[in-house]
């Protein structure tokens, strides 16, 4: 089992790397293009993957990954399951603020249990959970901005801010109403 | 993961930011003198060397990877505690001792902040405008609502008066008055009737009989004869008390002429099968 | 005195209603019967008024049902992608089968069909693409040929394929027999291929689309469709993606695929669970039907495979649609 580790490589000067993991490869492509197009005075590289573990042969060329984003399409059970299994191939060090969940298609009629499962997953791993609108360009751009904001911190580009510090503020906590729902 | 490793994890990112920061703002440094630039570069290189040192240390640390969620939470706690300790112990230090560099950084930061504050300003101005507009709308709405409230209060007062007039109590009072009036009227009628009866229909006495009839007619006047007044009262009471059987038996206390008169003028009726019973005519 | 009866008028009205307004002019101009009168028609009117004008014109000309069926054929040949088309295959060709020409076929077919059922109205027309279009309105001893529900059959001479639309079970043996005799073949059977688009069915059955045969040597895909990618974006599992594309292309080909609407797989098997004795001891096979449907099924399947939604390797049953040229399968135990 090859774990992806947060500190196994030296960081690049003035650079940040984000890894988008999505089982369906639909949203990740356009999200990646949008992220790259954003005007940043930092060199942002995007890596795309369907699932973890990442192939061994890329080990050498792969830079240090500063943020791992799991994109979950709520309309597909496979999408959630794939993300869940991929999590096992991530070094625990990543869960100290370098993992983020993005949920798409939450607007469409989706089974509430799945959304609750995703929320529980994000809460148990102390990761932020973002809801993304993938149908409009504005939605994609907004998501890109939000991810870049997190990435800047996790890549250590913001003085006096660390990913762990940020994640204690942004990590998802289950709201009491979901708890209530579970008790019912 | 041992606490040493955790601490290093957290020290590390705060170190990375330092070599990155100067190069992130390259355009402004062009204005600096060559000496300043060289000094800065040196500083960066020093930092980077330190970073590589730390990096090597991290790689050498072998954290156990198989961890359950609970341990992860404990881990996290330890990491946060370590970071807290680090922030508490850290000494704030100058980014650079070169005043030229500091000036450039300061200028850049101020420019950045200026542009951000401008954004905030325009944003809040737009917001204020929106709020003013909605305030105006709300005020107009409030006025309208007040008018409505006033009208409604008036209406309520009017309704209350109306209600009092039509209330049960009022109706009761009216009815009582009517009853009293009727009772008065009835009493008056009864008095008048008894007056008339007393005056015009006295009980027969022996004197009058002697005067009218000859002595040879045997007269046996019953001492217990009823006056017309009494007869009528009897009849009336009977018909009111037992409407199903309004007949009164005619006995010797009834003076026959009076009985005859009552029958003749249709005030009383004889029982169709028993001629010794009479009743009052149905007047109602 | 020339005049049209009510049923003729009704057939005409129905036909005009079927043809969209923007296609009316084109369709009518192809009709030689109306050539001289075409200028007198105003195509800018509303469809209702236009139909009324057309009706009075036909009334004047004393148009017969036969003429109207000509117009219908023109329209159907131009717009064949309507209704459900079924593919059939002729087999056991006789020696003289390749020599049958249009005139011979026409005569033979008409003669054989009328012999079987004298109350039919047949119209045969050769289209530019070598296809023979046959329109049959069926009648019986008691009824006139029903022109409202005609059967269309399309046959390409010197090929063993026939495509049929609107055929009822009752008339199936009659048409089959007439076709078999006219084409000098021994028998005719269902090709288990059907769809809304005649062109797609024809292309698939006669292998007239760009195909890619399964090869063991993977071809570099980048050469064929270079996707411009940003150097800042890197796919970790690009090899996998390429493999999936490769698999998809091997399974379904990489060109434009014929548009099929559905594929049906019927499984007939013995119940194999030992715990359930009642079902296991049953004589009747256990039946299950899986139906895939889409506006363009083959494209959808290929996309599902190439995008990784469907698991690879692809089940041999899916590529069988293009390989065996059918979209209805019955899978039974050996």
TrEMBL record, chain A:
Gene3D superfamilies: P-loop containing nucleotide triphosphate hydrolases. The keyword Ribosomal protein does not apply. Its main location: nucleus. It is found in: Chromosome, Centromere; Nucleus. One of its GO terms (cellular component) is nucleus. The keyword Nucleus applies. PANTHER family: CENTROMERE PROTEIN M. This is Centromere protein M. The lineage of its organism: Eukaryota, Metazoa, Chordata, Craniata, Vertebrata.
Automatic annotation (TrEMBL), chain B:
Coiled coil: none annotated. Residues 1-22 are annotated as: Disordered. Pfam families: CENP-K (PF11802). GO terms for cellular component: chromosome, centromeric region; nucleus. It is found in: Chromosome, Centromere; Nucleus. Belongs to the CENP-K/MCM22 family. This is Centromere protein K. It comes from Umbra pygmaea.
Automatic annotation (TrEMBL), chain C:
Its main location: nucleus. GO terms for cellular component: chromosome, centromeric region; nucleus. It is found in: Chromosome, Centromere; Nucleus. Pfam families: CENP-N. InterPro entries: CENP-NAC/CAD_complex, Chl4/mis15/CENP-N. It comes from the Eukaryota. Keywords: Centromere, Chromosome, Nucleus. Belongs to the CENP-N/CHL4 family. This is Centromere protein N. It comes from Umbra pygmaea.
């Amino acid at each position: 089992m090859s774990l992806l580790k947060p500190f196994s490589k030296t960081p690049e000067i003035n650079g940040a790397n984000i890894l988008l993991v999505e089982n369906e490869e639909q949203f990740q492509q356009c999200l990646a293009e949008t992220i790259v197009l954003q005007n940043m005075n930092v060199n942002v590289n995007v890596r795309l993957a369907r699932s973890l573990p990442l192939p061994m042969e890329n080990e050498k060329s792969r830079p240090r990954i500063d943020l791992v984003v799991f994109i979950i399409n709520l309309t597909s059970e496979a999408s959630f399951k794939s993300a869940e299994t991929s999590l096992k191939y991530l070094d625990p060090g990543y869960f100290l603020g370098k993992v983020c969940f993005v949920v798409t298609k939450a607007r469409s009629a989706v089974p509430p249990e799945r959304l609750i499962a995703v929320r529980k997953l994000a809460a148990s791993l102390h990761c932020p959970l973002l809801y993304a609108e993938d149908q409009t360009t504005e939605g994609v751009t907004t998501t890109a901005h939000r991810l870049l904001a997190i990435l800047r911190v996790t890549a250590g580009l913001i003085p006096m801010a660390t990913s762990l510090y940020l994640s204690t503020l942004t990590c998802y906590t289950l709201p009491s109403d979901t708890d209530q729902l579970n008790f019912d | 993961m041992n606490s040493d490793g955790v601490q290093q994890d957290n020290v590390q990112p705060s170190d990375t930011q330092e070599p990155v920061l100067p190069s992130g703002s390259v355009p402004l440094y062009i204005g600096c003198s060559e000496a300043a630039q060289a000094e800065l570069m040196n500083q960066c290189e020093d930092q980077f060397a330190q970073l590589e040192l730390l990096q090597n240390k991290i790689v050498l640390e072998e954290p156990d990877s198989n961890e359950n969620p609970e341990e992860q939470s404990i881990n996290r706690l330890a990491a946060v505690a370590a970071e807290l300790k680090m922030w508490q112990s850290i000494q704030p230090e100058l980014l650079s001792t070169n005043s030229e560099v500091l000036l450039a950084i300061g200028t850049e930061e101020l420019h950045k902040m200026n542009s951000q504050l401008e954004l905030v300003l325009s944003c809040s101005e737009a917001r204020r405008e929106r709020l003013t507009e909605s305030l105006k709308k709300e005020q107009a709405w409030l006025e309208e609502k007040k008018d409505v409230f006033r009208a409604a209060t008036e209406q309520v007062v009017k309704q209350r008066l109306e209600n009092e007039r039509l209330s049960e109590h009022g109706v009761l009072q009216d009815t009582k008055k009517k009853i009293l009036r009727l009772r008065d009227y009835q009493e008056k009628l009864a008095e008048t009737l008894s007056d008339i009866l007393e005056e015009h229909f006295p009980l027969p006495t022996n004197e009058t009989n002697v005067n009218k009839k000859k002595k040879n007619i045997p007269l046996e006047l019953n001492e217990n004869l009823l006056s017309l007044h009494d007869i009528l009262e009897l009849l009336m009471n009977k018909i009111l008390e037992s409407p199903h059987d309004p007949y009164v038996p005619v006995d010797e206390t009834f003076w026959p002429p009076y009985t005859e008169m009552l029958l003749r003028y249709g005030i009383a009726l004889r029982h169709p099968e028993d001629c010794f019973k009479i009743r009052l005519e149905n007047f109602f | 005195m020339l005049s049209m009866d009510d049923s003729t008028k009704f057939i005409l009205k129905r036909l005009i209603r079927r043809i969209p307004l923007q296609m009316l002019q084109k369709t009518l101009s192809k009709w030689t019967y109306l050539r001289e009168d075409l200028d007198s028609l105003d195509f800018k009117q509303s469809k209702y008024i236009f139909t009324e004008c057309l009706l009075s014109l036909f009334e004047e000309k004393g148009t017969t049902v036969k003429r109207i069926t000509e117009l219908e054929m023109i329209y159907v040949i131009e717009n064949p992608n309507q209704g459900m088309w079924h593919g059939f295959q002729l087999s056991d060709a006789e020696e003289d089968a390749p020599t049958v020409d249009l005139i011979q076929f026409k005569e033979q077919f008409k003669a054989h069909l009328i012999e079987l059922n004298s109350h039919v109205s047949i119209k045969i027309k050769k289209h530019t693409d070598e296809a023979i279009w046959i329109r049959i309105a069926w009648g019986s001893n008691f009824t006139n040929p029903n022109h409202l529900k005609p059967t269309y059959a399309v046959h390409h001479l010197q090929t063993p394929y026939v495509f049929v639309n609107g055929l009822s079970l009752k008339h199936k043996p009659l048409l089959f027999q007439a076709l078999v005799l006219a084409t000098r073949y021994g028998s005719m059977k269902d090709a288990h291929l059907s769809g809304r688009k005649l062109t797609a069915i024809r292309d698939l059955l006669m292998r007239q689309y760009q195909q890619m045969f399964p090869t063991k040597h993977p071809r570099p895909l980048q050469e064929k469709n270079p996707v411009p990618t940003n150097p800042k974006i890197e796919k970790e599992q690009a090899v996998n993606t390429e493999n999936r594309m490769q698999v998809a292309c091997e399974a379904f080909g990489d060109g434009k695929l014929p548009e099929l609407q559905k594929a049906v797989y019927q499984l007939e098997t013995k119940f194999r669970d030992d715990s359930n004795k009642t079902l296991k001891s049953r004589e009747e096979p256990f039946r299950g039907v899986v139906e895939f449907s889409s506006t363009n099924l083959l494209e959808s399947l290929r996309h599902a495979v190439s995008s990784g939604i469907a698991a690879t390797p692809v089940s041999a049953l899916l590529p069988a649609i293009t390989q065996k040229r059918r979209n209805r399968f019955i899978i039974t135990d050996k």
